[in-house]
Amino acid sequence: MKPENAAYALEHVKPWKGALQRLLGREQAADDRLLLVLLVTQGLGAFLMVMNHRFGGALLLLYLLPATALLYPFWEVDPERGPLAEYAVLSEFLRNVAIMGGVIGFMITTDQVPLKVKRKHLHPDLHQHRD
Length: 131
Fold this sequence. Notes:
- It is a single chain.
- The protein has one domain (about 5-125).
- The protein contains five helices and no strands.
- It has helices at about 5-25, 30-50, 55-70, 85-110, 115-120.
- The longest helix is centred in the last third of the chain and has 27 residues, at about 85-110.
- It is elongated, with a radius of gyration of 20 Å.
- InterPro entries: HR_lesion.
């Protein structure tokens, strides 16, 4: 990693690090609550999505929309930093947009039947009791 890329990454990590420190300490600001809500939303959404529930996808979208806008504002990158900095932030932004597209695709195509139930219907001979 180039030193200027590392410095740029550290610059964007500092607000989140400070928010986490305040959250774990005695102070709790509105930003900390937002961060906590986003983390819980991401975790619960991922779990429900693995369990094949459409609501998990909706929770992940609720996480990805503000997180993408807050973490990767490519429109605010200083042009003096050069095109590489702009492209780096834009690529991360577009990566999250692509992930959102995948989540929407999952939400459209899922049948909401848990995978454990599906396996029993696909392979009934494996789940019969043998004496």
